[in-house]
Task: inverse folding
């Protein structure tokens, strides 16, 4: 049986999928490698933080390394972009802990406050981009998972958030069967269940701690 051929459409390098996230006051973007690698584009749109969730894609945002290596080491140093890296496979092969880590890493990047020290030069709180190679599957499902869990009143089900991100990312219905991949949607559903259990357990611990104070 022949495999279904999915059309490829042009779309923006980055897409704003949610404006003014409640509790954070920043916008959430989704994009692919072209957008995530375009530092002037990121800065022009006020994006200070990038979460790259593709295991098969890497970036080096360091413009002026602290040390230029002449051996097996790579250059390192501060960059104009706060960069977080996750490793989701675009298909089967992901442990459930990887999607769970992605949710908490995105939430952590939004919550994190950097100290006022010279060794932390990129402290500004700007908008956030979640990217993968094409900006069609891994980044879409992770952004949708976050919106579903962070804004349950607006996105009570994961499919509600997925449809919202697909529309904002300009994904067309004839490519929805793989944007995101079905196994990634299933992993996100399981992750949502785990997050509910974790947060319920944390709430119970706080109540017990308060009662014992």
Result:
């Amino acid at each position: 049986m022949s495999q279904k051929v999915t059309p490829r459409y042009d779309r923006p390098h980055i897409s704003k999928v949610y404006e003014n996230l409640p509790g954070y006051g920043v916008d959430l973007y989704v994009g692919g490698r072209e957008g995530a690698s375009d530092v002037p584009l990121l800065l022009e749109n006020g994006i200070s933080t990038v979460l790259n969730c593709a295991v098969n894609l890497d970036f080096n945002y360091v413009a002026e390394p602290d040390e230029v290596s002449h051996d097996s080491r790579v250059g390192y140093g501060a960059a104009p972009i706060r960069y977080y890296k996750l490793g989701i496979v675009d298909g089967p092969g992901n442990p459930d802990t990887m999607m769970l880590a992605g949710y908490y890493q995105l939430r952590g990047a939004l919550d994190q406050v950097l100290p006022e020290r010279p060794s932390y030069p990129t402290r500004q709180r700007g908008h956030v981009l979640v990217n993968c190679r094409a900006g069609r599957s891994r980044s879409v499902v992770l952004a949708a998972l976050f919106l579903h869990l962070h804004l349950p009143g607006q996105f009570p089900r994961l499919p509600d958030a997925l449809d919202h991100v697909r529309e904002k990312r300009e994904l067309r219905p004839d490519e929805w069967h793989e944007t995101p991949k079905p196994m990634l949607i299933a992993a996100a559903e399981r992750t949502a269940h785990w997050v509910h259990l974790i947060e319920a357990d944390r709430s119970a611990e706080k109540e017990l701690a308060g009662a014992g104070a």
User: Anything to note?
Assistant: The chain has six helices and five strands. The first strand starts at residue 14 and ends at 18. The domain at 14-58+77-212 is CATH 3.90.190.10 (Protein-Tyrosine Phosphatase; Chain A). Residues 204 and 210 are 10 Å apart (CA to CA).
